[in-house]
Amino acid sequence: MSIEVRNVSKSYGRFQVLRDVNLDVNTGELMALLGPSGCGKTTLLRVIAGLETPDTGTIRTHGEDATSRPVRERKVGFVFQHYALFRHMTVFENIAFGLRVRARADRPPETEITKRVRALLDLIQLDWLAAHYPDQLSGGQRQRVALARALATEPRVLLLDEPFGALDARVRTELRRWLRRRHADLGVTSLFVTHDQEEAIEVADRIVVMNAGRIEQIGSPAEVYENPSSAFICRFLGHVNLWPDAVDAPGQVRLVRPHDCELLRADPGMGALAITVKAVRPAGPLVRIEMQTPGQVDFLEADLPRETADRLNPVVGETLYARPRRIRVYPS
Amino acid sequence: MILGLTMMYLGLVVLLPLSTAILKGATLDGSAFWAAVASPRAIASYKLTFGAAFLAAALNAVMGLLVAWVLVRIPFPGRRLVDALVDLPFALPTAVAGIALAQLYAPDGWIGRFLAPLGIQVAYQPAGVFVALVFIGLPFVVRTLQPVLEELDPALEESAICLGASRGVTFAKVIFPALAPALLTGFAMAFARGLGEYGSVIFIAGNLPMKSEIASLLIVTRLEQYDYAGAAALATVLLSMSFIMLLVINSLQSWSRSRYANR
Q1: Are the C-beta atoms of residues A288 and A303 closer than 8 Å to each other?
Q2: What is the interface pTM, i.e. ipTM, of the complex?
Q3: pLDDT tens-digit map of A2-26
Q4: Which of A57, A189, A318, B261 could be a cystine partner for A8, CB 3.0 to 4.6 Å?
Q5: Is B169 an interface residue toward A (CB < 8 Å)?
Q6: Mutate to test the interface with B, among A97, A106, A159 (most CBs of B within 10 A)
């Protein structure tokens, strides 16, 4: 086990940010901490790094109690959302920083430092920018330099706080695929914070979903997406329709994902909803139908495969019948 | 249009009065000018003025950094009050400051009485000039550093510490380079103010010719003796020396800025 978080709680004044959090991160794993803003995920990451002190609880990294260890001795690599590169140093000097500030006794010789920085520059594919300053780099390049800088000291644990958050959409996708592919070679246990469910599903081996200072569910992306343990997670991971019900079931929330929704021209009975088609929007391989049931304000959504949609050929304004293939029921 | 307006304004407000002084000084012929500006008394006053202004600005650069750091980074009760206090030397009539300082540092004053047994005399001595200039210059350093410190991303220090740097190394290699341009600006402003300061100094300096007489006081003395040309000659020298020093500091500053921001 690389990181063990035990019974960690933390408050700022009267606001409790973390409530009795327990978490294990396996060695070599790439784990996502997912949750809405203000759920405590960044605080948890900073507690693990030692940048914040927990009120109660312990942090162990590689079996050693790290709770009372100063940050600089924890051997933790930290990547910040806004890169935090040193502007007056070149890319090379930024990456070499962690090696050059070591006490003389365990500082590698300059030739060794150069070798290691060169290797990292190759890894991030930016060797041609070694002599440039951070201000001359794009956002994606800066974040890769920040990653290389954090890896230079060969940390046992890599913590990333919204690492792709400040990048534009295309660079973000590129960089997270790159991280996904190269992570196994890095040989480091990583935990990254994100509020983007798509990012968590695409990059992580396992996902930790947090809400209001608590961990709600831990599992593989498939588990968390297919079997969300609560209505909150179901809503947070992907689109979901709050399904109106003919039979009033108090104390229950019925949720249907748009792709679990079938549209039919004839009423099949069995709890199908009569709906009016409000909009038809082709989006890649799927066609999204926005629809409304009489007496409801909110629109419902159905995602149909293109073929099915072509065959059905829904027209705006017409009445169809919506039948859920799968309904998830949670206590409200 | 805007450039023209700026130039005209600067010309009217800054250049015109200065050139008048220079022109007045130029009414003297070469040897009379030299006699006016290179007399031992004048040389002694330059030494004191520039020396005290430089030392005071240097001390303020160090202490001002500390004050700005505490005001920005360390929350404590009464911070707003202390913050406002920093501006007092700006607002206070300098004569009031001079009189107050002279009282404090006089041999029987609150501070002077503890220094006197040690054989240290501040008031009515060259050291008094230094004390007055320290008082006057502090807000320049603090107020130029504060906004830069507030803008400084705490993540910079945090990443340095995560990378294994000690507090000292983090300050020297990460924080100080980021603050250096602003620190130089603050130093230059405190220094420039020190060169021109008159009001507070004359009350505490004692104003002994050759010993504790600052250059601007010597100019006033010449004026009182109706030696307008002599006063203008001294002013010209003071002016050109100040201008050269500020030019040097400014280029130093743009050099450090270009090194830092790489532009």
Answers
A1: yes
A2: 0.82
A3: 899 999 999 998 899 999 999 999 9
A4: A57
A5: yes
A6: A97
